[in-house]
Design a protein that fits this description.
With 158 residues, the chain is of the alpha+beta class. The chain has helices at 2-24, 57-77, 83-106, 124-148; strands spanning 30-34, 38-45, 109-115, 121-122. It has a 4-stranded antiparallel β-sheet. The mean pLDDT is 89.
Length: 158
């Protein structure tokens, strides 16, 4: 149930924030958000991360559908189990749906979050995908750590 709740919340919040940004800012317009650490700049990206593959949004949208289907298949098959894998997959799927909707409907994705570092413009779907990867990495680390322990010994939780 948590799996589907995460997907729903990520997709809904992502779509709502994109509609909001499109309604208050013209493409290229900016506004500060949080103490000069984050600002919002409306950008339309017809490609992938880092503005690569410009003009390929529809193909990337189809790829997102395929990736979502594969994740759902492996989850149903039982290959994605455990809190961290489930959460990671859910954030990944929610983010892929959020960006996939725009790619397939509009041929571009609304990006708007700019961190002070100035390295790219993102949206909430992008952040959810990154968070999903973090959950998978944590799961891999814990699984590896568990394999290193002698048989029967439990991982100490502090």
């Amino acid at each position: 149930m948590l799996f589907y709740l995460i997907i729903f919340v990520v997709t809904a919040v992502d779509q709502i924030t994109k509609v909001w940004i499109r309604s208050i800012l013209k493409v290229g317009e900016s506004m500060p958000f949080y103490k000069d650490l984050i600002s919002f700049t409306h950008y339309q990206n017809s490609g992938a991360a880092g503005s690569s593959l410009q003009g390929s949004a529809r193909y990337l949208g189809i790829l997102a559908v395929v990736i979502i289907a594969v994740i759902l298949y492996y989850r149903k098959k039982g290959s994605i189990q455990g809190f961290f894998k489930e959460c990671g997959a859910a954030f990944f799927v929610g983010g892929a749906i959020g960006n996939g909707i725009e790619r397939l409907l509009f041929g571009k994705v609304t990006d708007f979050i700019v961190f002070r570092s100035g390295h790219g413009v993102m949206n909430l779907a992008d952040l959810a995908i990154n968070l999903g990867v973090v959950f998978f990495v944590v799961d891999m680390f814990l699984s590896y750590r568990h394999k290193l322990l002698p048989k029967g010994e439990k991982i100490p939780i502090k």
